[in-house]
Every structure is written in C-alpha cells, then in structure tokens.
What we know:
The complex is a heterodimer of chains A (about 350) and B (about 290). Chain A is an alpha+beta fold and about 350 residues long. Chain A folds into 2 domains: about 5-235, Rossmann fold (3-Layer(aba) Sandwich), CATH 3.40.50; about 240-360, CATH 2.40.50.140. Chain A has 8 helices and 20 strands. In chain A, strand 7 (about 155-160), helix 5 and strand 8 form a beta-alpha-beta unit. Chain A is globular. In chain A, about 40% of the residues are buried. Chain B is mostly helical and about 290 residues long. Chain B contains 14 helices and 2 strands, in the order H-H-E-E-H-H-H-H-H-H-H-H-H-H-H-H. A two-stranded antiparallel sheet of chain B has the order 1-2. Chain B starts with a helix and ends with a helix. The chains are: A alpha+beta (about 350), B mainly alpha (about 290). At the A-B interface, strand 6 of A face helix 9 and helix 10 of B.
Amino acid sequence: xxxxxxxxxxxxxxxxxxxxxxxxxxxxxxxxxxxxxxxxxxxxxxxxxxxxxxxxxxxxxxxxxxxxxxxxxxxxxxxxxxxxxxxxxxxxxxxxxxxxxxxxxxxxxxxxxxxxxxxxxxxxxxxxxxxxxxxxxxxxxxxxxxxxxxxxxxxxxxxxxxxxxxxxxxxxxxxxxxxxxxxxxxxxxxxxxxxxxxxxxxxxxxxxxxxxxxxxxxxxxxxxxxxxxxxxxxxxxxxxxxxxxxxxxxxxxxxxxxxxxxxxxxxxxxxxxxxxxxxxxxxxxxxxxxxxxxxxxxxxxxxxxxxxxxxxxxxxxxxxxxxxxxxxxxxxxxxxxxxxxxxxxxxxxxxxxxxxxxxx
Amino acid sequence: xxxxxxxxxxxxxxxxxxxxxxxxxxxxxxxxxxxxxxxxxxxxxxxxxxxxxxxxxxxxxxxxxxxxxxxxxxxxxxxxxxxxxxxxxxxxxxxxxxxxxxxxxxxxxxxxxxxxxxxxxxxxxxxxxxxxxxxxxxxxxxxxxxxxxxxxxxxxxxxxxxxxxxxxxxxxxxxxxxxxxxxxxxxxxxxxxxxxxxxxxxxxxxxxxxxxxxxxxxxxxxxxxxxxxxxxxxxxxxxxxxxxxxxxxxxxxxxxxxxxxxxxxxxxxxxxxxxxxxxxxxxxxxxxxxxxxx
Lengths: 360, 294
C-alpha cells in the first residue's frame, strides 16, 4: 500500500479575500477511507472540489499516485465524485446514467454491459435500469450516483456529504453499506461531512478542518480520546471545559490548578509548559459518574440536577455545582431523575479521563 | 337562493375556474374567435365586382392561391425569412443567456433588464431606426465611405431581404432571451460538473447535458419568434422593398387596394395552417434530435 497515494502540498484556495483553504498539506494512503470533517464554511468541500478539478488552487500542488494533477481538468483525472444532491441526469434513465462515464474509456459494448450490470448489483439496484431520477427515492438516487462514479473504476472516489439528505435510519444503513463496499472494492474514499458521528464511525482517518486549516488529523479513536485543541475537543462529541493553570512539571505528568477545585496531577499529552500558563481541562460526559452517594474517585463534587434529557440508551444530566459556575453535563445509563431526592447528587471524575488542552 | 348559490360555488372547482377565466374568455371570443370565424367564412366566398361579394360556398379561392405562382413563392419566402430570423436569434441569444445563467453571480435581473432595454421603445420606432442605420446614406454606408473603404454605398443593406432579416432578428431577440434564460437558469450546475467528472469535455458536456436540458426554452423561443415573424408586415413594408416583400404584405393588399377579400382571407388561412404545421414539425424534430444526441 502506498502511504502517499494522494499528496496535498501547501494547497491554498482564495476566493477574493476569503481564504477557503489556507496552506494545507497532508497525505492520504491508498485504499484508505479518509474523511474531511468540519462545520460549514470550513473549506472541506473546497478541498474536495480541488481534488476533483472543479477548482484550481491559488497555490500549492496535488499529486495522485505519483503524478501531478494540479492543472488537469476534471475529465482527465482518475477521480470520480458523488455529489451532495447526487446530480443524476434527469433526461436519461438509470442505465444510461451509469453508462454515461464509460463511453470515453474505449470499452467494447459487451464490457460496458457487463460493468453496468456488475455495478448495479453491487449497489443493489438491479431492476431499476429503466427508471428516471424523478421515479427514485432519495436512497435509490444516492445508489445511482455511487454506481455511476464507481463504474469507471476510479483511483479515488470523492464523496461530498452524500448522506446529508437522507433520514436518520437510512443514513445509518448507508453508512454501514458504504464502509462495507469500500472494504470490498478497496478504492480510496475521500469523504466530506459535517456530521462528526458519521466521520468517526466510517473512517480510517479523519481530518478536522476549521477556517481553511487542518486542526487535527488522526484515527477516530485518537481524535476522540486525544483532541489536540479546544476546537477539536468541542466539535467531536460532547465535553465539559474547566479552566486551569499549569504548575510544576513531573515527567510526563503536570500539576495543574483547576479553578476552585485545587491542584491535580494530570497526564501531559500535549507537552504543555509549566510556566503557569492558562490551560483548559476537558472531561467527556460519559467518563463521569453520577450517584446518590459520595464516591472515592479522584474528584467528587456535590451538585443539584437542573435538567435531564432522556435519550433512550442513556440519560443526560445537567448539574450545577458549588465549585464550578458552568453547568456540567453528565451522561449515564442507569438513572433517571426520580432516583435522586430533590435533585441532590454527586459527580465523580477520574484524573485519567481529563485531557489537557492549550488555551487559544 | 343566494345561500344555495354560495355553497355551490364554494364546492365547485369548475365554477371557480370559469369565473376566473371569464374576462379572458370573453376577450378571446370577441377579439379572436369571431374575427377568425369571419375570415374563415370569407375565404369560401367570391369577389364579383369591386363592391359585390357572392356569398355562395366555394373552395375556388384556395385553388386560386396555389395557381398564382407569386402567392406560393411569397409564402415560401415568408417561411424562409422567419426560419433564418429564428435561427440567427437563437444563435445570438443562447450564448448571452448561457453566460447570465451560469457566470453572472450578482444582479442577474439587471443584466436581463439592460438587454431588453431597447424594447422599451415602440416597434415602429425601432424599424425606423434601422432605416437610419442601413440606408444608402445611413450610419454603416456613410462611415464606410468616409473611411475610404467603399466608393459606392452597399445597396443590399436596404430595401432587401437582408434588411428584413436584420431588423426582425433584432426586434424579436428579447422574446427569445427570456425563455432561453429561464430554461438555462433552471439547470443545476452540478449536472454539468458531473458530466465533466465522468470524462466529457466542455463541448461534449454542452451537447449531452446543457442543450437537451435547455430544450424547453429553445422550443419556446422558436415558437415565440417563428409564429409572429411569418406574419409580420410592418418591417417588410418599410424595409423590404420588392426583394423583401412577404406574404403578409400581399394579404394586406387584398384587404385594401386590390380589394379581393375572399382571396385575402384564403391566403391568411393558408398561412395560419402553414405556421401550425411548421411549428409542429419543428418542435417534434427538435425534441427527437436532442433525444438522439443524449
């Protein structure tokens, strides 16, 4: 496997004064399911369109499988795209849509027919050949768009929020299917989404983008467990932020003074300096324990439940404590509001579950 | 009674539809259907003398029409001129609409308004201004002579078929712009990007995607230009001379100077039928042609 299958070297794209993509460099491995994740306007779609050839970079260059594709028009690139709105040609039927990209490949008629048949069975659309776009459901259109792109056997498949228009149940199904499909055919996928859960559940690696820059690029697990900054920590999943000041360093640990709670020894993943700088402690809601009784965990706070939201598989508690002015979110599988008398509760935190972040 | 009527009206959709349609229906009946019926019936009569008309039924006027070479050739010429006008208008209006629909990001409406600006003046005024531009001492000829490029003025510019085609093309361009723009603007740009992504060049994308998808606008523009220009008589009368005369000028003469109302009516009816047939053929072939391409 080629580790630098796609090389993005110092790519910038400016629209007037707006830096949509701002000096971005990274590499995508061959056969990888790679996601670009970020809020709208972060530059992820622009980056994808640069890869597809719909936009040309203001500076920097793009290499695909060793050859420079920076200046190639879209029809000369070995990439294919699944569009956000699917872009199914409305005046031709499903079969012709799928055949559309094959005409220029110099295949024989038999090969074309075989490829179309194979790809339609791959996306489970046999029997829909004669239908038109207007006669298909959202999920079916999505499959046609996928088939139309895959039938050309591209080196890279680019997907621009392809699941955004589907309802939740169908989306979950398609996520699983897309992942299975990608494993099966082994084509490199570059997937753009604003849905962090989608990116985390499908990808081998995720690049989190904001304001045209990559904030962090790592495996989904790393991203969740070890966010590199406040933006990533806040964007991926839910978290509580506590203000703190650094104190003395102690090997790979550092002593920090968490506001109103006292001094604690916390693992220093980001190698934060000891010069009493401001830092942020991030604690995920599900790592905390909420109970009626005091616990012997590293930190245990008394609080009052202000609000609960029942989510089925778990319940979220919004708790007010004496020590911290902000309301803390705790999620738990076991309790509902009735378990607590007058909303009185204890929140316990393990120091291992606290991650330190640089304050911006 | 009023109550009964009210509840009937509230429940009946056809009643609502007809009451809303009635002003237009009355107008169309009075101003279109009755005159059209009168014209149709006149085409079956005979002009006996200058003032006298024989009202007995005959199809002789239609036979007369096809026996007069002049009338048949004028009909063919009318259709030919209209075809050229339609074609040239489409060719000039389409790129403009394409540009506004896909490349103008802001103030699209302003562009359209500016393009239709010349059409805020009267049709007659515009025809006359072409006279000033195309005439032997007009803008084109005098500037070419003053520049020393010509010693004699170009005569084919004025009182000719060319003059009629130029003027009609300009006169009807605005009517082609709107349907073309609307149909192009409706095309989702990602369809064009998708075609490029699937390996088609710009030109191939235009043939396979843009053109077939803008077909409704093209057919609309063809009909909107072809139908009225076939019957136009102001422009050929003012700018056509003998070379640029069209059938409508002859029909006008039959109803006026020549005073042969039945033959005029028969000629008008034949023109009406010709336009209807040509229109149907054009729409049908355009549709088939684009289906073939895609």
